[in-house]
């Protein structure tokens, strides 16, 4: 099931995207959005009679975390190598504020404090209920679904600051979307799902989730051993190799097989 947040010009609402999808998770042109009553994380899936053509609605970030976005650094060996670092012995965590979250089609704002803004295409895990100290074998019990993220990073600030907060914490630095896919199993990512990033149509990242050092259940267990996770919290699972700079006017598309594609453009922050 593909859970989305959408707008028809009024207040944001939740819905289910229906219709056939291709192997990448992209919906057919005749797909529709069936409206839901309330937030499915809190009231469950309550389908209404209202339906809209997918082409007639604006998709928003499928979730705005009320609490936090937890990033995982260097979770692909090749990316760790390209950044000049070693593979961590346990997941390397950092936080992004929920004000970094934007949705499909929203601009990534290029702030004046940086001159080296990078894309990082990632699989994102959406937590479905309050949990702490989750055993690896019970991770599926607390996962609501999966979406796509761009862990935007001011690389020069990351290097100069020696930590991640400012470099990854600007408004618009966490595009999410286009929806949350609830019908995938963590094993799907162990077996390998393609993660690709396109910069102005050219492939710049071409990886697979099978190359993650720590898989999804291990990440959920590790993060929840440190902090309580709340419904709607998001865990970013790391990025494959191939990260690089974006410029004002660039279009960045990230696709993950079985989920879909997330597209944003870069604009100058005023």
TrEMBL record:
<feature type="domain" description="Rv2993c-like N-terminal">
    <location>
        <begin position="1"/>
        <end position="62"/>
    </location>
</feature>
<protein>
    <submittedName>
        <fullName>Fumarylacetoacetate hydrolase family protein</fullName>
    </submittedName>
</protein>
<dbReference type="GO" id="GO:0016787">
    <property type="term" value="F:hydrolase activity"/>
</dbReference>
<dbReference type="InterPro" id="IPR036663">
    <property type="entry name" value="Fumarylacetoacetase_C_sf"/>
</dbReference>
<keyword id="KW-0479">Metal-binding</keyword>
<feature type="domain" description="Fumarylacetoacetase-like C-terminal">
    <location>
        <begin position="68"/>
        <end position="266"/>
    </location>
</feature>
<keyword id="KW-0378">Hydrolase</keyword>
<dbReference type="InterPro" id="IPR011234">
    <property type="entry name" value="Fumarylacetoacetase-like_C"/>
</dbReference>
<dbReference type="InterPro" id="IPR018833">
    <property type="entry name" value="Rv2993c-like_N"/>
</dbReference>
<dbReference type="Pfam" id="PF10370">
    <property type="entry name" value="Rv2993c-like_N"/>
</dbReference>
<dbReference type="Pfam" id="PF01557">
    <property type="entry name" value="FAA_hydrolase"/>
</dbReference>
